[in-house]
Amino acid sequence: MARDSCLARVTAGVAVGGAVGGAVGAVYGTYEAIRYKVPGLLKVRYIGQTTLGSAAIFGLFLGAGSLIHCGKSY
Description:
Blueprint: H1 2-35, H2 42-70
Helix pairs in contact: 1-2
């Protein structure tokens, strides 16, 4: 039972981290694409890469934090 609960917490952490990272990455990618004057349709690619990269990193770290925190009992 405890393993299922821990797995659910880690999965939720990864999902929340991915959502937050995606939102932050989209905003930051848009800002940088405009700031550096990325031409034409390359803006969409640049924003997409930034969004996915941020979502992956945030999801990884929030999932790892959830996994570490899962073993502690208070």
